[in-house]
């Protein structure tokens, strides 16, 4: 399809204006076919940007190496350009939208010379779902086109739903590396210097402008940019939730099914939980989504969730057959790897993959690398943020409902962080307001390895949304409280989990991974008002015998991780009162301040 064949006159005009600004050599409207995906991959192979992997061992897989300056989200260059700085809030970088658009328009001018402009119509969520949203991304990167094919629903079918006048989120993207006559990338990852990278969001006009990066969430604009930063604003205005949450389907031995979501900061086991292999006999856990959940009230008053994504964009290091067998099975074929190491057999390797490096490797920078276990200073072969982009439909644990356009009914929300003390293994909120309070104080304890931060300090990441909320987080808390005023008896129950409690010797008490299914079983029962419990000052806790103990966890251990640390919680409350809640100023809802007082009063009773 050409631009002239587009039915949507507003979209057509927007593309024509982008062409005038960015000066591409040619323009292609993406159709979403397998042939198109294969052609994008071949373009990157022919230009030296991609290495085809062993077709016998990893069929359909390729490896990319990015520029060392372009390996992760660049939070310092990520902006919420709301009309008012107050609307962006204290957790976002703000720039005046008119000033930012002027700056970026000059950067965009001529930025696609020598390149093709690809127009990617994409649906976040099943095409046609009333919970889904449509975006259109302009890009000059075939790597981005290929990744978007995996991570979203792309192509002509999306344009059919959009029609002649449908709503879409316009997304500008350029790697910021125009080519002169006859010039090619010659295997060098195209991007702009760090000081010229911009990932910009315009909440009022529902626009995303990205320049200078070709990597991950900086360039795959359906992911964090649309699915969270812009979607949170849409959700606030339209009365639903856009959250940084996995979605699980749990089936008990009786065949009863419940769906739960979970929000966790990075390095807290979110992806592992999303694809959990249960150790509890008779229980089944399946994946609906691993990263983002969009939830809207259904006709029956319950919240229904979709996974707006179509693929997994996962961190490779630490992923192995023990930690996440389902992820490893998912990425055996048709997967894009970025910044992992290459073996002599043309397969991939990364740190903590579960076995030693198989001989001489090519590391993520393109240099030869031989593992030296005695050298503690040896740089990793794979970048710590190296990634895989794999189709969700390939996951062995994918639930059959994962593409249901109506979504799945949610029974429980989980929040959690990495906390070696104070926070129990699992804790149910006494009320919706108490649950929102718990979500608002999510955090992980900083280790001694962190630079410039005192060990033991709690790094707060409310709702695991700190980098992803597109407006003032105090207003975001208020939005959650407002959701709680609708059909209160049908709202999901709220729980806080902590797999990371340590004993006096500094060892983890709970084994985690598949054994987390034992905690999920108690949560499942509590959704129906069942399961043994005790009411405490901090919430509803299981009795020590309410959760079936895994091997190596004693009765004493269970009593410890299900106890209320009164003094620890008093310190927690003091830290929230002094260091956390003041950040939100007069935007902090009074209900949360009152909840803080109520918990403190119960602890002192």
Give a structural overview.
The strands form seven sheets. Strands 1, 4, 5, 6, 7, 8, 9, 10 and 11 form a nine-stranded mixed β-sheet that branches. Strands 12, 13, 14, 15, 16, 17, 25, 26 and 29 form a nine-stranded mixed β-sheet that branches. Residues 448-452 have low confidence and may be disordered. This protein is 26% helix and 22% strand. It has three domains: 3-30 and 78-238, Phosphoenolpyruvate Carboxykinase, domain 1, CATH 3.40.449; 48-64 and 312-392, Phosphoenolpyruvate Carboxykinase, domain 2 (Beta Complex), CATH 2.170.8.10; 243-307 and 402-604, Alpha-Beta Complex (Phosphoenolpyruvate Carboxykinase, domain 3). The chain has 605 residues and is an alpha/beta fold. It is built from 16 helices and 31 strands. A hairpin with a 5-residue loop joins strand 16 and strand 17.
Uncertain runs: 448-452
In angstroms, what separates the terminal alpha carbons? Answer: 70 Å
Assign the CATH class of the largest domain.
Answer: Alpha Beta
Q: Please state the oligomeric state of the protein chains shown.
A: single chain
Q: Could you outline the blueprint of secondary structure elements for this entry?
A:
Elements: H1 9-22, E1 26-29, H2 34-46, E2 50-52, E3 62-64, E4 78-80, H3 85-88, E5 93-94, H4 97-108, E6 116-124, E7 133-139, H5 142-151, E8 153-154, H6 156-162, E9 169-174, E10 198-202, E11 207-211, H7 216-219, H8 222-238, E12 241-243, E13 246-251, E14 257-263, H9 270-274, E15 284-289, E16 293-297, E17 303-306, E18 311-315, H10 325-330, E19 336-338, E20 341-342, E21 348-349, E22 361-362, E23 368-369, E24 387-391, E25 408-416, E26 426-428, H11 432-440, E27 443-445, E28 458-460, H12 473-483, E29 493-497, H13 517-526, E30 533-536, E31 539-542, H14 555-561, H15 566-580, H16 590-604
């Amino acid at each position: 399809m050409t631009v002239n064949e587009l039915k949507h006159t507003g979209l057509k005009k927007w593309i024509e204006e982008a062409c005038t600004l960015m000066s591409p050599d040619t323009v292609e409207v993406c159709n979403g076919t397998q042939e198109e995906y294969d052609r994008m991959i071949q373009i990157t192979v022919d230009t030296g940007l991609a290495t085809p992997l062993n077709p016998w061992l990893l069929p359909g897989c390729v490896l990319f190496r990015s520029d060392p300056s372009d390996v992760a989200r660049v939070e310092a260059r990520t902006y919420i350009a709301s009309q008012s700085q107050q609307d962006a809030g204290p957790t976002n970088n703000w720039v005046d939208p008119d000033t930012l658009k002027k700056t970026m328009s000059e950067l965009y001018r001529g930025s696609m010379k020598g390149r093709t402009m690809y127009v990617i119509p994409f649906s976040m969520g099943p095409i046609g779902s009333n919970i889904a949203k449509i975006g259109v991304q302009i890009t000059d990167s075939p790597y981005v086109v290929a990744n978007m094919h995996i991570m979203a629903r792309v192509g002509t079918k999306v344009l059919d739903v959009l029609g002649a006048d449908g709503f879409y989120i316009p997304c500008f993207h350029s790697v910021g590396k125009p080519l002169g006559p006859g010039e090619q990338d010659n295997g060098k990852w195209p991007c702009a210097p760090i000081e010229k990278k911009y990932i910009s969001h315009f909440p009022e006009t529902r626009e995303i402008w990205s320049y200078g990066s070709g990597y991950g969430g900086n360039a795959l604009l359906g992911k964090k940019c649309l699915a969270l930063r812009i979607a949170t604003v849409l959700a606030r205005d339209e009365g639903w939730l856009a959250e940084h949450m996995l979605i699980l389907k749990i089936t008990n031995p009786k065949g009863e099914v419940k769906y739960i979501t979970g929000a966790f900061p990075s390095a807290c086991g979110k992806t592992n939980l999303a694809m959990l292999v249960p150790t509890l006999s008779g229980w089944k856990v399946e994946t609906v989504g691993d990263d983002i959940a969009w939830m809207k009230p259904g006709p029956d008053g319950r919240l229904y969730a979709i996974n707006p994504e179509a693929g997994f964009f996962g961190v490779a290091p630490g992923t192995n057959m023990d930690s996440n067998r389902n992820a490893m099975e998912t990425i055996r074929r048709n997967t894009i790897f970025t910044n992992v190491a290459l073996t002599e057999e043309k397969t991939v390797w990364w740190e903590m993959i579960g076995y030693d490096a198989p001989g001489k490797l090519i590391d993520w920078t393109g240099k030869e690398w031989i593992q030296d276990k005695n050298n503690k200073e040896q740089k990793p072969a794979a970048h710590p943020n190296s990634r895989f982009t794999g189709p969700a439909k390939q996951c062995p644990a994918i639930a059959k409902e994962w593409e249901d356009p109506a979504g799945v009914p949610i029974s429980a929300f989980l929040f959690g962080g990495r906390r070696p003390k104070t926070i129990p293994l699992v804790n149910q909120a006494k009320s919706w307001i108490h649950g929102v309070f718990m979500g608002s104080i999510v955090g992980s304890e900083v280790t001694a390895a962190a630079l410039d931060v005192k060990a033991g300090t709690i790094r707060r990441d409310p709702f695991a949304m700190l980098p992803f909320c597109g407006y003032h987080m105090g207003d975001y808390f208020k939005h959650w409280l407002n959701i709680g005023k609708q059909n209160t008896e049908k709202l999901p129950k709220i729980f806080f989990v902590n797999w990371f409690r340590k004993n006096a010797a500094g060892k983890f008490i709970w084994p985690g991974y598949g054994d987390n299914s034992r905690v999920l079983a108690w949560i499942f029962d509590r959704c129906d008002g069942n399961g043994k419990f005790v009411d405490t000052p901090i919430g509803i806790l299981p009795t020590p015998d309410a959760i079936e103990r895994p091997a190596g966890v004693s009765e004493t251990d269970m009593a410890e991780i299900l106890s209320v640390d009164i003094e620890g919680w008093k310190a927690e409350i003091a830290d929230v009162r002094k260091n956390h809640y003041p950040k939100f100023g007069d935007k902090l809802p009074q209900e949360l301040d009152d909840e803080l007082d109520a918990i403190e009063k119960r602890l002192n009773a």
